[in-house]
Every structure is written in structure tokens, then in C-alpha cells.
Amino acid sequence: MNIKSKTLRISGAKLLFTPMFKDVRGYFEVFWEQSDLIAAGLSFAPSNAHHSYNTRKGTIRAFHFQRPPHGQAKLVSCVRGKTWDVILDLRPESPSFRQWEAVELSSGCGKAVYIPAGCAHGFATLEDDTTIAYLIEGEFRPDWSAVVRWNDPALGVTWPVLEPIISEKDRQAPVLEAYLGSL
User: Fold this and answer.
1) What dihedral angle (degrees, nearest 10) is formed by the CA atoms of 59, 63, 112, 136?
2) Domains in the chain and their CATH numbers?
3) pLDDT in tens, the chain (183 residues)
């Protein structure tokens, strides 16, 4: 199938260009093909899949992750609508520690983002009725689940949303320094 990849600024993260096949019926996309990911330098064996349904433009979900040693790698794609997808590197040993990078994804764009374990993930919906699909490597461990505040000034993330819709959990999340101090 030949999934192509581009290395992102976040160490180990990749933007994948997924094959799209179009005819009069619409599109068919190859979102994950193990042999192609191995050829792109990714060892990724998903153990579960999830969807995030977001009804309103301006919804922000960030920055969610699982603490070590139970980090989860993710392959993220937008299957409906449009999103601004953000990776935040929380790995102290990484050369891109504390850095973030964003990629715009939309349904039918032929792109997916690989997020390495140890990085947090967040997104802002740019259209109503946006659905995000996840393939995830590593089991969900609620006791190891964590979140860093989406608007921590020390991170300097420039969200493309003027009036964000945010859960109470994300609104009350600790800033990055508080999380790092708890390790």
C-alpha cells in the first residue's frame, strides 16, 4: 500500500500520508498497514481502537496521556470534520521534551499522526460534528491516566479557537510543572 511518512519535530512522531483510492462511490483509505509502518521505521502494534465524537466546533480535549511505565502510542486520524491535532512531548529524556507540534487533519485528507508513548495528545475541533479515530498500543490503565492543562502558559500552545468548549477535568488539570513535580 505504501504509506509515506514525514518526521515531525517531536522525537519519534510522524505524519503519515495514507493511500486514498477514489471512484464514483467515494474514497477508500488505508489507515494502518503493519508492514508499511515497519518500513517507515515504526514498531506499532495496536491493542485497541477508540472514537472521539465531538458535536461542536471549538471543542478542546487536551492534554491526555498515561504516565510511565504505562504510556500508550497512538495513531490518530480524523474520520469526520476537521481538527487541529497537537502532540506534547512529556519524555524528560527526549530531545523535544516540553515541545509541542500541531497538524491539521480532516476527513478524507489522507493523513494520520503517529504519537509515541510518553507524549500527551490534544486537539481542537475546527468544524461541528468532528470524529477522531484512534488506534492505541497499550492497555488503558485508569490509575495511570493523567492530563496537563490545555492552556498552560509555559507551553505556549496557540489554540485556533476563540471560545473553547472544555470539560471540567481539562479545565482543572495541573500545569506541566506541577505534573513533573509529582514524578
Assistant:
1) -120
2) 4-181 (2.60.120.10)
3) 588 899 999 999 999 998 888 899 988 888 888 888 888 888 899 999 999 999 999 999 999 999 999 999 999 999 999 999 999 999 999 999 999 999 999 999 999 999 999 999 999 999 999 999 999 999 999 999 999 999 999 999 999 999 999 999 999 999 999 988 776
- This prediction's pTM: 0.93
64 is catalytic: yes
> Would you state the cell numbers that stand for residue 129, as one nine-digit string?
460534528
Q: Which of 27, 50, 51, 134 does the annotation list as catalytic?
A: 134
Q: What's the rounded Cα separation, in Å, for the pair 90 and 54?
A: 26
Check if 27 is active-site. Answer: no
Q: Which of 51, 64, 70, 114 is catalytic?
A: 64
CA nearest to 133, candidates 50, 72, 54: 50
